[in-house]
Amino acid sequence: MKGIWTTTTSMMGVLAFCQTLLHTVFPPELRFASLKFFQRHLKWFSSYCYYDITEIDGVNTNELYNAVQLYLSSSASITGTHVSLTRGLNSSAFTFGVSNNDRLVDTYNGTIVEWEHVVTQRQSQTFSWRPLPEEKRGFTLRVKKKNRQVVLDSYLDFVMEKANEIRRKNQDRLLYTNSRGGSSDSRGHPWESVPFKHPSTFDTLAMDPVKKSEIMADLLDFANGESFYRRTGRAWKRGYLLYGPPGTGKSSMIAAMANYLGYDIYDLELTEVNTNSELRKLLMKTSSKSIIVIEDIDCSINFSNRKKSANSGARKYNHDSASPAPPGTNGEDGGSTITLSGLLNFTDGLWSCCGSERIFVFTTNHIEKLDPALLRSGRMDMHINMSYCSFPAFKILLKNYMGYEETDLVLEELEEVIDEAEMTPADISEVLIKNRRDKSKAVQELLEAMKMRAEKTRAKKLLESNRNEIQDKEQEQEKMTLDIPKEGFDQLEESCNKDDEKIR
């Protein structure tokens, strides 16, 4: 036994001496180069090929990386012994994925592929034109060389399609907002997100059913129109303008669109964007299958109608009626320098094509204040008037809030006054919520409120009509006065002077 220990100790000493000699004779640079050389030549004899899919591709997030991550976290065909489990906020379902620097095996049409999630610490850089995440992430796909055409021709497309299906079925939508001052998070993203749980759907949306069906059909045609947009050479995007008085359901419409298509929402706050360049970067960081929203566009930045502004400045008596531009719109005092041209390029320029399947939605309370360049087809393709509550929309509200059926005689009285009342769905909803425990009381109170509003509306219209008549008469008198020639004024003045002399 003693001899065995002596021999083992001697061998360990020899190995340590050889290792020291090796480090002395061969420097680290030479050893590293030799190792790379042997690895490169060994790959020629290997039966496998490898494909790297990094998280960031240049300045954009690699959509294939996101698709693989989503596919591996939801596919039932994945096998592995070490996976990471996650559970989203307010979610009852668990999802699994590939742990850092671990592997999972997938099978596709008899072909076995192996996925490895490679996560390394990024080396510190002295200078970077944009912030980079601390970790460098990516997937490495290993497959036998004889099966690589299967992977390139169909398997990766299959992964993308499955990821899109999973994303559509996923109920946890995300609501994004741009960070203040264009700052980015630790992973270099300028958008902050929260789970989107808005319950609004087209079934609950208070709107004329005919108009609602048209919007739903248009949205469905857009979502299924990839081949059409590609064939016609158009960017796969569409614009919607929602306009109308406050409280008519513009935000609920946006939520219903997102829930109907399964898209995320990017709520763009223009007052937090400083330059056109920053606006383009925000667009580049949005994902496909998303709705980009700019609410109250007529209030956030001064994009008023240039023709009306010019006419207002040229007229003598309407000079003071033009509203002044909001502070900071011209870059003064360090404010925003976003221009109308920058916003137009954002929605319909070359940069708007950096991505696909995007919907732009603008909302405004005063469509007449917006510049026509924002409203033309190609930017805002569909204009949706969110008007006052109509009788078909009112019946939807009664059904949603009260479970009310249209069998009571009172509904006929409501139908007679609802158009003249000009009440918004928000006004009606408030009455229904307040009296949700008593159906008859809710309907009676609504009937009284509508009759009162209808009387006020009629009185207001009568007052405006009288005012317009007075203005028309004043303009006619002014026109008649201006039509009298100058010679007539001279003769009248001479006659008056003669009469004065006679009297004297």
Question: Key terms for this structure?
Answer:
504 residues; alpha/beta; Rossmann fold; 3 domains; 7-stranded mixed beta sheet; 4-stranded antiparallel beta sheet; 15 strands; 48% helix; 17% strand; elongated; AAA-ATPase At5g57480-like; signal
Describe this structure in words.
Helix 3 (63-72) packs across helix 4 (148-169) and helix 14 (410-421) runs parallel beside helix 16 (439-483). The protein contains 17 helices and 15 strands. It has three domains: 35-123 and 132-170, no CATH class; 174-314 and 327-385, Rossmann fold; 391-483, no CATH class. The termini are far apart. Strand 2 (56-57) and strand 3 (60-61) form a beta hairpin. The model is unreliable at 313-333 (pLDDT under 50). Strands 10-9-12-13-14-11-15 form a seven-stranded mixed beta sheet. Helices cover 48% and strands 17% of the residues. It is an alpha/beta fold. It holds the Pfam family AAA_lid_At3g28540. Residues 310-334, 460-504 are annotated as: Disordered. It catalyses: ATP + H2O = ADP + phosphate + H(+). Belongs to the AAA ATPase family. BCS1 subfamily. Residues 236-390 form the AAA+ ATPase domain.
What layout of secondary structure does this protein have?
Blueprint: H1 2-25, H2 28-45, E1 48-54, E2 56-57, E3 60-61, H3 63-72, E4 83-87, E5 94-98, E6 103-108, E7 111-121, E8 135-144, H4 148-169, E9 173-178, E10 191-196, H5 209-223, H6 226-232, E11 237-243, H7 250-261, E12 264-267, H8 276-284, E13 290-294, H9 297-300, H10 306-314, H11 340-348, E14 358-364, H12 372-375, E15 382-385, H13 391-402, H14 410-421, H15 425-434, H16 439-483, H17 486-503
Helix pairs in contact: 3-4, 13-15, 14-16, 15-16
